[in-house]
Structure prediction request, 307 residues.
Amino acid sequence: MTKILVATDKPFAAIAVKGIREVVEGAGMKLVLLEKYTEKEQLLEAVKEVDAIIIRSDIISKEVLDAAKQLKIVVRAGAGYDNVDLEAATAHNVVVMNTPGQNSNAVAELVFGMLVYGSRGFFNGASGTELKGKKLGILAYGNVGRNVARIAGGFDMELYAYDAYTPKTVIENDGVKAVSSTEELFKTCQIVSLHIPATAETKGSINFELMNSMPKGAMVVNTARKEVMDEAGLTKMFEERPDFKYISDIKPTIDAELAAKYPDRYYATPKKMGAQTAEANINAGIAAARQIVDFIQNGNEQFRVNK
Ligand code: 3PG
Prediction:
């Protein structure tokens, strides 16, 4: 019997697991659950006899792939797949997919929770600022970026975006001004929301020079990946720009230091929670299960991300 493992260090909502189970068992396959595991060894043991794995930010390294002798497919229930060793997967003849768009509204909604929290001084009771009329820069206009633009319309913000891979016309059709570079976006916008993946190209790319070019009252919101930040540049920005705020859904390595020194200008969620809604869990989890069933039964590779 085909076995599908759900390996989630940060579990899906129970209702999403129920939906995943229905899809898996409805296709005559078996669901195996490994939730809230704390040791890599638990994952190495669990993958031994499974044909497919559904993960979130869980690490699928070469070591995990080596241990998973029957594995045919890994589906990252979500957008970013920097947690999967794609090269090793290809070498093991394992298909890797993501579920694009399924959790993006949840992440975009959190951006606005963070924006309001930041512009109201982390709810410290002092007079803050409004979002209305502010220039919001959206860095990367993918599924999350597009949802951010949609919601920002309700706040009456002035919208700008830069995306190296999306034609300007697509961005401008949404009433968003498409700028020509990341530099132009930071120079123009007082608030920037990051939606770039962590790749060799983007890692450490949000540096001091970029952030320091932002207008007064600068605020950067990161619901993407911690790796895209140049942490030395972030420290310098806090030191040199007393107006600067940074709010993140992923703790930087220097979290404790920033939290101690800049409690009025820095905030990070205790645990990454952009995609932690019942709706996003249901959408991404069930999409992952369906993609696996469709791949195993019909060979459909539509959402494959490795070559
Ligand atoms: C994603 O890439 O889909 C988001 O960062 C959500 O990640 P998570 O599933 O680990 O919450």
Remarks:
- The chain has a mean pLDDT of 98.
